[in-house]
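Final report, closing paragraph on structural work. Over the funding period we assembled a curated collection of sequence-structure pairs, and we close with a single example.
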Amino acid sequence: MNDEFIDLGDRTLRVRRLVPQRTDGLERTTLVFLHEGLGCIEMWRDFPQKLCDVLQCNGVVYDRTAYGQSSPWPADPGLAYMEIEADVVLPRLLAALAIDDCVLVGHSDGGTIALNYAAADPEPLRAVVTLAAHAINEPVCIAAIHRAREQYATGDLRARLAKYHGDNVDRAFRLWSDAWVAPGFEPMDANGRLPRIEVPVQAIQGEDDDYGSELQLGLIAGKVGGYCETRLIPDCGHSPHLQQPAWVLGEIARFVAPLALAG
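Its predicted structure, as stored:
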């Protein structure tokens, strides 16, 4: 793959551009994929390429700050790491890539970042798709994070993650896990931000998600200011795009296709 390293001044992000296998020549929006906490480009597997192929859209997948092969945080973001990614980093990355028309597809933390970004009503944004996003921090999520911390300390989780994150692995894990178990931590200001989202939103979640309940879908749909549709997938956990890929591809394509033509 021909990855690029985009210098944003205070950090460098690894970016991979995707091109659909076939195109009809019409200009369409760009799909921008935001990975989960502890994720990276590779952990999406082939889902982004398949979605770009179905919709005949170009795409961008990137390693967020301190993940994969991107550089570490220039200063400790603390509990505000998702807000900073949404309010500061993502707008700068889109500008650097000259992307002025996009749909965000975000998984878990990436979905929450996409919602945070959408609350500013940014000019490039056409729609948001979330996969297992969090509007609030639930006890089920905190319990899952504690289990992950134990697996990281005593099991093989660190070794498995190090294959993707290299020297970033310990910093990335601590930032993510310390935030989610911190007393009073919330992934976003749901009451303040969700009502400001005017672009169409599609929120997808697995029925058996260890990190969140159906409450997340209800909160997102109930609070966003514009159109929102939700999809709860049976026999599916925290990664709908990997556990039920055909279903998820079909649903996202149905939602995005009418919005995809630029202009």
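The longest strand covers residues 12-18. The chain has ten helices and eight strands. We thank the funder for supporting this effort.
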